[in-house]
Design a protein that fits this description.
Chain A is an all-alpha fold and about 300 residues long. Chain A contains 15 helices and 2 strands. With about 170 residues, chain B is of the alpha+beta class. Classes of the chains: A mainly alpha (about 300), B alpha+beta (about 170).
């Protein structure tokens, strides 16, 4: 059962009831597992390239240069930390991160693992991922930080299993403001990228969408579609549909009535995106849909379908 | 009770901070506000929320970066590749998808540091020379040059350098 704390004023009450809902953390735990699996597949793929990507012996182009006059701000600190890591250090940090991801999936020492993973992610971001300069790396950093603060390790985890062995009593409900925060962040990503397309000259017609099918990120399927030479008018319409979808879904994801449709079309949208463009990282957004579902409903579904003893 | 109140104030402040970061990121991406993060001038913070600009330019030109090596030491880097140069398969050093590799090769992360970006191509050439000579001690190269080919984008194939392609020397070891 979801409950909210009462407040005197209208806006304050609305703020409270929106952000400070309480309930079972099963949706967060499910997302934690999906998030972990997502990172495991991404991380394991990097294994053959660790010295090349993450050491001073390889393509070492960190975000900030090493400090010349000591550490006195964020940039110099990062410059010092990412200054020419040796191959053993690169392997050590890579392996520790892999272990942390496994701890996150299994839910053992969850909060500590997530916090250390967040630090590791920042390190690897400023060491290497920043070169790429993409949105999804930043969204993933934000998600990780919010998960650190969340009760996502309280259920569906080894932490819970050990806790139950020690004592029978367990807390059933938690404050889920972090779950709300991730949902709002996802909604803003949809909304802001939709409005960006509306305001950007590059998206004034279907030209940008059409050219992305044979652009840098295009897959073989994307090229195949490009070779069909579909008239530009269709891409104008697809662009408008995409903008409409992105703006609409940012609001409708919060509506129980529309959620199923949002999940269906959102899943389809990201599946098509990932098929024609090399950006599978955005599939994490589909994984986050579970956070929009009523927490009690997710708990019931998990308990009905999975028996964790 | 006091602990709960303090906790709530901290959480509310955090929520407002994240929302501020998002508004700032949105307005910067939409070019409504050109100087982001005047309230919080932390580069980490503003970078974290700069996530809403996607495919900012229409793809008019395809790009291919190449690393070419010469067996003999050359005094000056040739502005265009010569037939004697050997292809060192630059993309094998950037084992991502082509788009991601091109972003890295364009040093998207150094967009605000043009000098560092230009210098990085020379350093990249040195790294490739070292790695290549380590892997091929029997066929070492004396110099490595990084070039960028670009040509009008074509739906019929990315890896197609048409007659219209231009070449640009980016760096050398």
């Amino acid at each position: 059962m979801i409950s909210t704390t009462k407040s005197k004023f209208g806006i304050a009450r609305a703020w409270e009831s929106f952000w400070f809902l309480t309930g079972p953390p099963h949706a967060l735990a499910t997302f934690r597992i999906l998030f972990g699996i997502f990172w495991f597949t991404r991380w394991i793929w990097l294994a053959p390239h660790v010295p090349l990507l993450f050491s001073g012996e390889g393509m070492h182009f960190p975000a900030f240069p090493p400090p010349r006059n000591g550490i006195h701000n964020f940039e110099t600190l990062v410059g010092w930390v990412t200054n020419s890591p040796s191959v053993p250090r690169a392997w050590m940090l890579y392996s520790v991160t892999l272990v942390l991801i496994l701890l996150i999936i299994t839910g053992l020492f969850t909060r500590i693992a997530l916090f250390l993973f967040f630090l590791s992610l920042n390190y690897h971001y400023y060491l290497y991922f920043h070169m790429h300069g993409t949105s999804y790396d930043r969204v993933l950093l934000l998600m990780t930080f919010l998960l650190v603060l969340s009760p996502c390790g309280r259920v569906l985890s080894l932490d819970e299993w050990f806790r139950k062995r020690r004592s029978r009593q367990s807390v059933e409900t938690y404050s889920l403001w972090t779950q709300r925060m991730i949902c709002v962040q996802i909604a803003i990503v949809y909304f802001a990228t939709g409005v960006h397309k509306l305001t950007s000259p590059a998206w004034k017609n279907g030209d940008n969408l059409a050219s992305s099918f044979y652009g840098d990120y295009a897959t073989s399927l994307g090229y195949w579609i490009a070779r069909l030479h579909i008239p530009l008018g269709y891409f104008d319409v697809f662009t408008l549909v995409t903008i409409f979808f992105e703006v609409a879904v940012s609001v409708l994801l919060f509506s129980k009535r529309w959620q199923k449709w949002c999940f269906l079309f959102g899943g389809l949208f990201h599946l098509i995106n990932s098929s024609v463009l090399w950006i599978p990282e955005f599939l994490i957004v589909v994984c986050s849909y579970v956070l929009f579902v009523d927490p009690s409903g997710v708990k019931k579904f998990v308990e009905d379908h999975f028996d964790f003893g | 009770m006091l602990k709960q109140r303090v906790k709530k104030v901290v959480i509310n402040t955090f929520i407002l901070l994240v929302l501020y970061g998002n508004v700032n990121g949105m307005l910067s991406s939409w070019k409504v506000r050109f100087e982001p993060s005047s309230f919080i001038s932390n580069s980490y913070f503003s970078n974290l929320f700069y996530i809403y600009g996607v495919f900012l330019e229409v793809h008019r030109f395809s790009r291919e970066y190449v690393a070419l090596g010469s067996r003999e030491k050359l005094g000056e880097a040739p502005l265009v590749p010569t037939p004697e140069m050997i292809d060192l398969n630059l993309y094998s050093y950037f084992p991502q998808s082509h788009g991601e590799a091109n972003q890295r090769l364009a040093f998207a992360g150094y967009l605000n540091q043009p000098e560092r970006r230009a210098e990085s191509y020379n350093r990249m050439a040195s790294i490739i020379k070292r790695l290549h000579n380590q892997q091929h001690p029997d066929a070492p190269v004396e110099n490595v040059f990084i070039y960028l080919y670009s040509w009008p984008a074509d739906p019929d194939g990315y890896y197609r350098r048409s007659n219209e392609s231009t070449v640009q020397l980016l760096g050398s070891d």
